[in-house]
Design a protein that fits this description.
Strand content: 15-25%
Shape: globular
Radius of gyration: 25 Å
CATH architecture of the largest domain: Alpha-Beta Complex
Largest sheet: 8 strands, mixed
CATH class of the largest domain: Alpha Beta
Length: about 500
C-alpha cells in the first residue's frame, strides 16, 4: 500500500511529492495528462530557442517560497522588463497613443530558463519511478484504515492518505466520493486561469525597446483580440518576444480557431509598428484544457481568485484526505506562491499526529468542553511544530502570524471532527433558537481556549532564544498582534458557520 498518493502533477503536487521523497517517505504521484506541470507550460521557440511560459510566468520578491524554489533548483531569476513608455490602443482603425511610463508589473520576476525548468527539477527530485502519467481520477473511497482511488481506465490504487492537488471545481464535476463530500464547497472556488488564453510572438530582437517602449500596451476598443501585452524577451532583448492575454471570450476564440495566431500577430503589428511583421506566434487556450477548465468556469469566466475557505485547507477523513493547489491557498491564491504554500501546509499536516477524539462519553457541550480541556497542550505543540518548520526553512518573515494561523486552523478542523462525533440531544439542536444557543456556547468556549493559546504563544516568543534574531517575532508589536487577532477572528467566523451547518444537518437527519 502507498504511504501518500498525490493526484495532480502541477506545481503543488510536484512540490509536495518532492519534499516527501526527500524525506524518504513512500509516495506516488498520479497525473491525468501525459506531461507534468499542470497550468505551468513552457514552450521553446524553434527558431530562437527562447523559453516562453504560456501559463503562469511571474512571481514577486515578497513571495519567499517561489524565490527559494528557484534558488534551490539553480535557476536564474530575471526582472520583468518594465522600462520605457507604455501604449494604449483605443481605436480599432487607428494607432496607439502614449500611456505614461510607470512600471505595471510591481517588480515581478521571471525564470530565464522558463518555469518548465522548475517542473523538470521537481520531477527529478520525485523520481520517474514515483510518477504515473495518464491516470484520470474517477473516484475516492474512504475504506476506514486507508483510501482507495479509482481511475477512468479501471485501475485502482490504495494509500494510507491521499492528497488531491487538483482544481476544486474539476474535482466537484468529475470525481465520486464515498462517503459523499460537500461538493458545492469545492464548486464555489473558481479555477485560476481556466477561462484565459495567452499568446506570445517572437522575433530575433526587440525593436520596441530601441524605440524606448516597455512592451506594455492596453487595448480598449470593442474589436480587440488582445486586451494587454507585455515583454517576454530574453534579458538583453535578443531574442525578442511579446506576450499578451486575449480579450475574446472562450466561445469566440473557438469560432476563430486556426485563424487566431494571424489575428494576434496583426494586432501586435498595429500596436508596435511594421518592424514586428513576420514574427512567430504561439497560443494557448486554457479554456480548451479539460484537465484545467470546468464547465462552471466556462459559465462564469469573470470570477476572481479569493482566499480558500477553511474547508479546503483542513485534513478530512481523520487525516486520510487533503486538498492542495493554488485554489486551496490561504495566502497568494491564484499565484504559484499559493500552490507552494498549499504544498507546505499539507506537508505540515501529514507530519502532525492524527486528531485527538474525545475520550469522554458526555454528550453535547459537556463532551466538547472535555475535549477542549484535554487539547490545550497539544494545540501549543502544533504551533511550535509549525514555527520550527518555518524557521528551519529560513522563513523569518511573519513566522509567528503564519504558524499561529496554522495552529488555529488545525484546532478548528479537529473541533469540527469532535462535534461531528459528540452526540447532541435533539432538544438542543432541533429548533433554530436552541441550535443558535449551542453555536453561541461553542464560540464562547473556543474563544476562551484560543485566548489562552495566543497568550501562551506570546509568552513563548518572548522567552525564545531562537527568535531573538527576529526582533519583530520576539517582542510582537501591537499592530502585528492585531493582525494575528484579525486572522483568528476570520477563521473563527468560518468555523462557527460550519458548526451551524453541521448541527442543522444532524437535526435534519435525526
Amino acid at each position: 500500500m502507498i504511504g501518500t498518493a498525490i493526484v495532480g502533477g502541477g506545481l503543488a503536487g510536484l512540490a509536495l511529492a518532492a519534499e516527501l521523497a526527500d524525506e524518504g517517505q513512500e509516495v506516488l504521484l498520479f497525473e491525468a495528462r501525459e506531461r507534468l506541470g499542470g497550468r505551468v507550460l513552457t514552450v521553446a521557440d524553434p527558431g530562437t530557442g527562447l523559453a516562453l511560459d504560456m501559463g503562469p510566468a511571474w512571481y514577486w520578491p515578497d513571495q519567499p517560497l517561489m524565490a527559494a524554489l528557484v534558488a534551490k533548483l539553480g535557476l536564474s531569476a530575471v526582472p520583468q522588463h518594465d522600462g520605457g513608455s507604455n501604449l494604449i490602443l483605443r481605436d480599432a482603425e487607428g494607432g496607439p497613443e502614449p500611456d505614461g511610463a510607470d512600471p505595471v508589473h510591481g517588480g515581478a520576476l521571471r525564470v530565464a530558463e522558463g518555469l518548465g525548468a522548475a517542473v523538470a527539477g521537481l520531477a527529478a527530485r520525485v523520481g520517474a519511478e514515483r510518477i504515473r502519467p495518464g491516470h484520470v481520477l474517477a473516484s475516492v473511497t474512504d475504506c476506514g484504515g486507508h483510501v482507495r482511488l479509482g481511475f477512468a481506465d479501471g485501475s485502482e490504487a490504495e494509500a494510507q492518505r491521499v492528497v488531491l492537488a487538483l482544481p476544486p471545481r474539476l474535482i466537484a464535476e468529475t470525481v465520486r466520493f464515498e462517503p459523499e463530500m460537500p461538493l458545492e464547497r469545492l464548486a464555489e472556488m473558481p479555477t485560476w486561469m481556466a477561462p484565459v488564453a495567452k499568446a506570445a510572438v517572437t522575433w530575433p530582437g526587440a525593436p520596441w525597446r530601441a524605440e524606448g517602449q516597455s512592451g506594455n500596451a492596453t487595448v480598449t476598443h470593442d474589436r480587440a483580440v488582445l486586451h494587454e501585452t507585455f515583454d517576454l524577451s530574453a534579458p538583453e532583448g535578443v531574442p525578442g518576444a511579446l506576450g499578451g492575454f486575449l480579450a475574446l471570450d472562450p466561445g469566440t476564440r473557438a469560432q476563430f480557431g486556426a485563424g487566431l495566431p494571424m489575428l494576434i500577430s496583426s494586432q501586435m503589428t498595429q500596436i508596435f509598428g511594421k518592424a514586428l511583421e513576420g514574427g512567430m506566434p504561439f497560443f494557448r487556450d486554457w479554456a480548451a484544457e479539460p484537465f484545467t477548465c470546468s464547465a462552471r468556469d466556462l459559465a462564469d469566466p469573470a470570477a476572481r481568485r479569493s482566499a480558500a475557505p477553511a474547508f479546503l485547507r483542513r485534513a478530512h477523513w481523520q487525516g486520510r484526505l487533503y486538498f492542495a493547489g493554488t485554489e486551496t491557498a490561504g495566502r497568494d491564491p491564484g499565484h504559484m506562491e499559493g500552490a507552494l504554500e498549499s504544498a507546505e501546509r499539507v506537508l505540515r499536516q501529514i507530519a502532525l499526529a492524527p486528531p485527538v477524539r474525545p475520550a469522554a462519553e458526555e454528550e453535547g457541550l459537556m463532551g466538547f468542553a472535555g475535549w477542549l480541556e484535554a487539547r490545550e497542550t497539544a494545540a501549543f505543540d502544533v504551533y511550535r511544530h509549525h514555527l520550527n518548520q518555518r524557521l528551519s526553512r529560513q522563513q523569518g518573515t511573519m513566522v509567528t502570524r503564519f504558524a499561529a494561523l496554522d495552529s488555529v486552523e488545525a484546532f478548528f478542523g479537529e473541533a469540527i471532527g469532535v462535534l461531528s462525533a459528540v452526540p447532541f440531544p435533539e432538544e438542543e439542536i432541533g429548533a433554530d433558537g436552541a441550535r443558535a444557543e449551542v453555536v453561541k456556547h461553542v464560540g464562547t468556549m473556543a474563544k476562551s481556549f484560543l485566548n489562552r493559546h495566543l497568550g501562551e504563544i506570546l509568552a513563548f516568543n518572548r522567552s525564545s532564544c531562537a527568535l531573538r534574531n527576529f526582533p519583530a517575532e520576539h517582542e510582537l508589536p501591537v499592530d502585528y498582534v492585531q493582525a494575528i487577532l484579525g486572522d483568528v477572528s476570520r477563521a473563527g467566523g468560518g468555523f462557527l458557520a460550519e458548526v451551524d451547518g453541521l448541527l442543522r444537518a444532524r437535526a435534519a437527519a435525526a
